[in-house]
């Protein structure tokens, strides 16, 4: 009898051993089986996301780490190839597969306008431009292309899309927001279906195969509504306004099956979002029925206290209790693991809360196919940089024509391709880094030839006739322009690259060299000004000098798209995703405000028509 019982028990353990690895089983059953086998240590390891700089296979094995990320600019080697990236990620994965239960890691990165950390990747226009294009299908195609380039490097997860509704352009992250209008941001959540694939069941997190990646709607909630646009600050207002303005895009993101949601550094009515249990658990998880996992921002829990990290035990307690499932630590992971373990063992955090977090993480990992395909697929290697035509199309569609001729009867655009001599001037005419903006190769982005692509000047030179003389001078004097014998000039100026708080700006004037270049050139010859910026800038003082003005936002690597339009191969279709103020004293000022006196209203955009 004893032998029979032992055999039955052994058989049961064997059959149990197969269940979570059995692809014929429903995902919920696989999750529950795996969860039931996990120790507290293994569970807390799953909730821990660490920066790749301090990640090795053995660290992942030892601490059962569930996720690794590349912060902005964090690369395995300068200008690393797709193969180098994939080998690095696969090496970390080996560490995870070597653990008792072999739970694979999920590797996250900010592929927010293409796979922008990676040298040579296609860099798409930033979201503020895509909002002006107003084309949900285009954005979905961009998502699909980005997923392919991310998978080329063996990575399975991107911290995108940002669905912030930027209500004040003084915010350094306004370019990451599709628009000031929640309905337009909502419409752009089609990118999630491009990144992940179409979820088969509304509201169910889904990643459709090895050509897709898990997505992340961020930053929940109210990141774009802070006082004076001060990054990570306080969003004040009623719950109704919070829902109607800032939460609205999450409804669609969740319907589309977004796999993760990242919490905002900011506060709502003085309560830090990273400890806001009502908005995270009661609303996001219960009322909106979000079934993926909630992730903190980078050191987001540390910043619950002021100064950051002042009381880490408190930070861990209130953030995990609030409903955050995975903590982007990213460096002091033993401290996080020890603190959380202690809080659970002392009964301050329930095992139910830990199980909810781990269940969600495992669910995403199963839906992302990580258990069946934990390693990179070399067939995608060639996808890096393989979507430049799509990016060029996107650039064309983002451009907004704000002025065309000092007298509408005499429009300047489309420009002649057969002019005898033209001047191209400005700090952003021949500078790939400037036209890409922040979150490009490095976290902040940088001026110069930081990656591969086509500058605006190169696009112009490619487009005009071989008999047209193109003169490039970054900041010409008015006398040299006057004496130059130019048919017209194209002045390309704007903001230097920036990201996050470094982009907070209270005056929003065109950086001085740009303003001077506009005046010196446009006072001497017919001029088109092309503004490269993450948001509207103060243009009113210079508008009368300009014969034409185009908002090109942050176009990315394919500057050819600008020449395609200004020389008439395509007409403008962009409608501004943002209100253009007359002066910063009017801010915040958004579509629908009672006091609304813009230079150019939300949705404004001219066409050239036929000359
Ligand atoms: C940053 C950003 C967030 C990004 C994360 C990882 O601080 O706030 O948008 O996804 O850290 O790089």
From TrEMBL:
It comes from the Eukaryota. Pfam families: Glyco_hydro_3, Glyco_hydro_3_C. SUPFAM superfamilies: (Trans)glycosidases, Beta-D-glucan exohydrolase, C-terminal domain. Keywords: Glycosidase, Hydrolase, Signal. It is an enzyme of class 3 (hydrolase). Belongs to the glycosyl hydrolase 3 family. GO terms for biological process: glucan catabolic process. This is beta-glucosidase. Residues 1-17 form the signal peptide. InterPro entries: Cellulose_Degrad_GH3, GH, Glyco_hydro_3_AS, Glyco_hydro_3_C, Glyco_hydro_3_C_sf, Glyco_hydro_3_N, Glyco_hydro_3_N_sf. Residues 399-607 form the Glycoside hydrolase family 3 C-terminal domain. The lineage of its organism: Eukaryota, Viridiplantae, Streptophyta, Embryophyta, Tracheophyta. The keyword Translocase does not apply. It comes from Selaginella moellendorffii (Spikemoss). One of its GO terms (molecular function) is beta-glucosidase activity. Its EC number is 3.2.1.21. It catalyses: Hydrolysis of terminal, non-reducing beta-D-glucosyl residues with release of beta-D-glucose. Residues 39-362 form the Glycoside hydrolase family 3 N-terminal domain.
């Amino acid at each position: 009898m004893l032998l029979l019982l032992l055999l039955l028990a052994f058989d049961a353990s064997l059959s149990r051993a197969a269940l979570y690895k059995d692809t014929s089983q429903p995902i919920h059953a696989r999750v529950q089986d795996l969860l039931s086998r996990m120790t507290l240590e293994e569970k807390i390891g799953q909730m821990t996301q660490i920066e790749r700089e301090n990640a090795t296979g053995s660290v992942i094995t030892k601490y059962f780490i569930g996720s690794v990320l590349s912060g902005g600019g964090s690369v395995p080697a300068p200008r690393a190839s797709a193969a180098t990236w994939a080998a690095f990620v696969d090496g970390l994965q080996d560490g995870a597969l070597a653990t008792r239960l072999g739970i694979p890691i999920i590797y996250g990165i900010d592929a927010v306008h293409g796979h922008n950390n990676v040298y040579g990747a296609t860099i798409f226009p930033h979201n503020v431009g895509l909002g002006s294009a107003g084309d949900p299908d285009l954005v979905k195609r961009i998502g699909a292309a980005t997923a392919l380039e991310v998978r080329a490097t063996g990575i399975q997860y991107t911290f995108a899309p940002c669905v912030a509704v930027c209500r004040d352009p003084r915010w350094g992250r306004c370019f990451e927001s599709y628009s000031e209008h929640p309905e337009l941001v909502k419409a752009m959540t089609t990118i999630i279906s491009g990144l992940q694939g179409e979820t088969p069941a509304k509201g169910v997190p889904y990643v459709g195969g090895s050509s897709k990646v898990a997505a992340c709607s961020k930053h929940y909630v109210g990141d774009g509504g802070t006082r004076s646009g001060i990054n990570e600050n306080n969003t004040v207002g009623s719950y109704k306004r919070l829902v109607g303005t800032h939460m609205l895009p999450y409804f669609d993101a969740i319907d589309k099956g977004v796999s993760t949601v990242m919490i905002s550094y900011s506060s709502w009515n003085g309560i830090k979002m990273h400890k806001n249990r009502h908005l995270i658990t009661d609303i996001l998880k219960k009322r909106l029925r979000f079934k993926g996992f909630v992730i903190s921002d980078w050191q987001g829990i540390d910043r619950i206290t002021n100064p950051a990290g002042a009381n880490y035990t408190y930070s861990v307690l209130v953030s995990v209790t609030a409903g955050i499932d995975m903590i982007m630590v990213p460096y002091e992971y033993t401290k996080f693991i020890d603190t959380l373990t202690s809080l659970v063992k002392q009964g301050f955090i329930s095992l139910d809360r830990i199980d909810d977090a781990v269940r969600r993480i495992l669910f995403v990992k199963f839906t992302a196919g990580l258990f069946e395909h934990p390693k990179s697929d070399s067939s995608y290697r060639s996808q890096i940089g393989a979507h430049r035509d799509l990016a060029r199309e996107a650039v064309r569609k983002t451009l907004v024509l704000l002025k065309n001729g000092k007298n509408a009867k005499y429009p300047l655009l489309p420009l002649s391709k057969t002019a005898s001599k033209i001047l191209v001037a400005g700090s952003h005419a021949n500078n790939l880094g400037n036209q890409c903006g922040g979150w490009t190769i490095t976290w902040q982005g940088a001026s110069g030839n930081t990656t591969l692509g086509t500058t605006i000047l190169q696009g112009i030179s490619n487009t005009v006739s071989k008999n047209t003389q193109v003169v490039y001078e970054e900041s010409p004097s008015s006398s040299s322009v006057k004496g130059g014998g130019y048919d017209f000039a194209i002045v390309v100026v704007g903001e230097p690259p920036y990201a996050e708080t470094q982009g907070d700006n209270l005056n929003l004037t065109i950086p001085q060299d740009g303003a001077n270049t506009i005046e010196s050139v446009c006072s001497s010859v017919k001029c088109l000004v092309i503004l490269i910026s993450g948001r509207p800038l103060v243009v009113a003082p210079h508008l009368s000098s300009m014969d034409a003005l185009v908002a090109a936002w942050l176009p990315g690597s394919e500057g050819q798209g600008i020449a395609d339009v200004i020389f008439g191969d395509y007409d403008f279709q962009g409608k501004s995703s943002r209100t253009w103020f007359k002066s910063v004293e009017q801010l915040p000022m958004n579509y629908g405000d009672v006091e609304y006196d813009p230079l150019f209203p939300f949705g404004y955009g001219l066409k050239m028509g036929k000359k």
